[in-house]
Amino acid sequence: MKTKKMLRYFSILLLGLLTKPSFSFSTHTAVPIDTLDKAKIDSSLFNIKYPELALDYAMKSNRLNPYGFEVSLLVDSICLTLTDTVHCSFHMPNLGRVNSTFGWRGRRVHSGIDLQLHWGDTVNAAFDGVVRVSKYGRGYGNYIIIRHENGLETLYAHLQKRFVVKNDTVHAGTLIGLGGSTGRSTGAHLHFETRFLGRPIDPELFIDFQQNRLKQQSLFIHAETFDVPRSKRSKRMF
Ligand SMILES: [Zn+2]
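A: This is the predicted complex of the input protein with zinc ion.
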């Protein structure tokens, strides 16, 4: 009987210790965004709630995808202006033929398009923007990521040489590097990607690589734009 009482006493004591008291804060003082620990912000709300902060954070990052963007949260479409006659123009990154398309390649998605070139061929920025990443990576070799004003990013990989550094401002057509075969690559080519908030989208959706021009002046992006169905296979063109 005594033991039972003791056990009950201890279990009540333990319950009291484990149960957290609930507090409610009724302050209306806003926390300045600068003082928030950026790394701890809920990543799924990151870009939607704090777009300027996301840009600032992304520009400081060297990661391929620093945005933590949750595609399922994109309920509306976003319209990106790709080009107009006054503010933004377009230039082909390289005039080489497409030798491999965007899509599934075995168990992985080939997240860009491959353009055939020779070592030392020029590679140009596709749109105006700011260099967010310029470095060497094991897979991409020498690569550059440019962030454009509409939020789109373009990536240029396997370069022999890079002529721009982080935070450089570039324009459509600026010479940014020379083509090569650095990193995980079996022959000289330009691996070219287009990404929005860190997620790859097929560049052929809006760039015509046969006619060397944009297919349209603006691009509607919605959740399905990022889908890569199993039927979409990366094709080797020759
Ligand atoms: Zn590739």
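Helices lie at 2-18, 43-49, 51-60. The pocket of zinc ion is lined by residues 100, 110, 112, 114, 191 (CB under 6 Å).
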